[in-house]
């Protein structure tokens, strides 16, 4: 169906006298530097939340959202008019307060937040809303499901009591081992909520999990469930948004950005709530979907259900202290045993096998046996590319990105050396910038080399690789996972995206190559993320039939985190890590904000970052200021970066300290 495009009237560009109008509005324009004021034409009922057309300067008219309506005449003489979009769409107060709270909490402007809240080409969705016809949803026969286990049924009854017999905010943690059937509990609870006329939002951490989750919910409920995420095709995205905007959606599945939509839930479920993908790291505002879900539920009254086999320490601490209802599933739904875990010490292996090989003998033989028996394997290596660095044979120089000063990674798929920070690609055979030699060696294997090694040593294995390079195109991740689920491939080789909540009944073996990768990152959550990654990956094995096996290859087998993961001992890990967090005053015992300070002149940056840090510490005695220090990656593109870490007992103390920011530095704030 072709959607006719609605356009603003020609008068939008004409400045008129303020005296000609009796009503005015302030508007949020996505990414605008400030609030702008426009006149409201007498014929239109524009109110707070109205979507309007405005024109900034001589730019093309664009969509804005009204933040305030007033009869107070502005101080300037001439003014342009704001015209409502032809759909007449108005965001309600719940959406507007969420937008403004997000901006305040995450130290962003409402204009920056609005850019994140609205999908690209939002005006086209409103155009489609005008011509939308009532859609007839045909019910499908529901799939027959096995009876709930005793644990699942007990958990469901507790959650239904929270959902139906209490008012206001309710929160719960469903802490279930991998394979314990948390998704079945989600589906039963969602079905009960829908039957009672309530709205349900289901969040998953990765795009790759959305199709699996949507398929399971659709089969269970008997109708198609709308899905929202950035990799959807344009027609599917438009269809989902139209259901939300028209109020016809009662259940939505999505990734973190779905929490920003104007879909008002009575029940929100965050599956794999521990996952770092729920945190927006790349652009302002640096929101966390879990934090927004809790805010909205407390503000408007709803049940928040957080589910995980490895809960974040903040969530676990809140549950143990009684702030959240703590519900535990201790057994797998199929009653099969947790997988057997074997640790392979690669330091010892290097003495007995070719050091260039990435696969140990144990893992290689286990993959071969698994494939020969008609079963499947998942192999994780959390390092993209073919080789992690190129080293000059003559002078020993590592070929770094000339802009970002970090080692370039050889990607065979891209036939060149790629910078993982600025994205620049350089020829593999370029001469050494230090000595001019053309002779080099590739050091440190990565996932493409592992793929090549498996194909060479286990030719009967049908391997598919899943990483950022193979899933760049729309629908690629969904296709890979679908093909693997249908057993078109016997080995799924991937980075950390293969570890997140996938349920593959045919997987009997999980292998982790380089189990300690990521442990040395200067981040107080590095240990937690390593434990989650190893535990979640291990949990993919033997979910249906038992007898699962996990092989962890590591250079550091005595690391306590690896030992806890091997023993499936979350409680032991949490106790140890929470004690360390308490001692160091880190979350959940404090609020922390990472401040990134950037400038094109390194000397200017170092000097003024020190001044900024000292000023913060002097004016805010209740805030602990650590740094500044050079960032882990000190230069990206042409910008040099330094980091500050702020600790306080509350987020309000940090926000108050950062009210006034220096204008001569680029400042990015990430509040945790």
Automatic annotation (TrEMBL):
<feature type="domain" description="Helicase C-terminal">
    <location>
        <begin position="424"/>
        <end position="579"/>
    </location>
</feature>
<dbReference type="InterPro" id="IPR014001">
    <property type="entry name" value="Helicase_ATP-bd"/>
</dbReference>
<keyword id="KW-0413">Isomerase</keyword>
<dbReference type="GO" id="GO:0004386">
    <property type="term" value="F:helicase activity"/>
</dbReference>
<dbReference type="Pfam" id="PF17764">
    <property type="entry name" value="PriA_3primeBD"/>
</dbReference>
<feature type="domain" description="Helicase ATP-binding">
    <location>
        <begin position="163"/>
        <end position="329"/>
    </location>
</feature>
<dbReference type="Pfam" id="PF00270">
    <property type="entry name" value="DEAD"/>
</dbReference>
<keyword id="KW-0547">Nucleotide-binding</keyword>
<dbReference type="InterPro" id="IPR001650">
    <property type="entry name" value="Helicase_C-like"/>
</dbReference>
<keyword id="KW-0238">DNA-binding</keyword>
<dbReference type="InterPro" id="IPR040498">
    <property type="entry name" value="PriA_CRR"/>
</dbReference>
<dbReference type="InterPro" id="IPR027417">
    <property type="entry name" value="P-loop_NTPase"/>
</dbReference>
<comment type="function">
    <text>Initiates the restart of stalled replication forks, which reloads the replicative helicase on sites other than the origin of replication. Recognizes and binds to abandoned replication forks and remodels them to uncover a helicase loading site. Promotes assembly of the primosome at these replication forks.</text>
</comment>
<feature type="binding site">
    <location>
        <position position="432"/>
    </location>
    <ligand>
        <name>Zn(2+) 1</name>
    </ligand>
</feature>
<feature type="binding site">
    <location>
        <position position="422"/>
    </location>
    <ligand>
        <name>Zn(2+) 2</name>
    </ligand>
</feature>
<keyword id="KW-0862">Zinc</keyword>
<dbReference type="Pfam" id="PF18319">
    <property type="entry name" value="Zn_ribbon_PriA"/>
</dbReference>
<dbReference type="InterPro" id="IPR041236">
    <property type="entry name" value="PriA_C"/>
</dbReference>
<dbReference type="InterPro" id="IPR005259">
    <property type="entry name" value="PriA"/>
</dbReference>
<keyword id="KW-0378">Hydrolase</keyword>
<dbReference type="Pfam" id="PF00271">
    <property type="entry name" value="Helicase_C"/>
</dbReference>
<feature type="binding site">
    <location>
        <position position="435"/>
    </location>
    <ligand>
        <name>Zn(2+) 1</name>
    </ligand>
</feature>
<comment type="similarity">
    <text>Belongs to the helicase family. PriA subfamily.</text>
</comment>
<dbReference type="InterPro" id="IPR011545">
    <property type="entry name" value="DEAD/DEAH_box_helicase_dom"/>
</dbReference>
<keyword id="KW-0067">ATP-binding</keyword>
<comment type="subunit">
    <text>Component of the replication restart primosome.</text>
</comment>
<feature type="binding site">
    <location>
        <position position="419"/>
    </location>
    <ligand>
        <name>Zn(2+) 2</name>
    </ligand>
</feature>
<feature type="binding site">
    <location>
        <position position="392"/>
    </location>
    <ligand>
        <name>Zn(2+) 1</name>
    </ligand>
</feature>
<keyword id="KW-0235">DNA replication</keyword>
<dbReference type="InterPro" id="IPR041222">
    <property type="entry name" value="PriA_3primeBD"/>
</dbReference>
<keyword id="KW-0639">Primosome</keyword>
<feature type="binding site">
    <location>
        <position position="401"/>
    </location>
    <ligand>
        <name>Zn(2+) 2</name>
    </ligand>
</feature>
<feature type="binding site">
    <location>
        <position position="395"/>
    </location>
    <ligand>
        <name>Zn(2+) 1</name>
    </ligand>
</feature>
<dbReference type="Pfam" id="PF18074">
    <property type="entry name" value="PriA_C"/>
</dbReference>
<feature type="binding site">
    <location>
        <position position="404"/>
    </location>
    <ligand>
        <name>Zn(2+) 2</name>
    </ligand>
</feature>
<dbReference type="InterPro" id="IPR042115">
    <property type="entry name" value="PriA_3primeBD_sf"/>
</dbReference>
<keyword id="KW-0347">Helicase</keyword>
<keyword id="KW-0479">Metal-binding</keyword>
<protein>
    <recommendedName>
        <fullName>Replication restart protein PriA</fullName>
        <ecNumber>5.6.2.4</ecNumber>
    </recommendedName>
</protein>
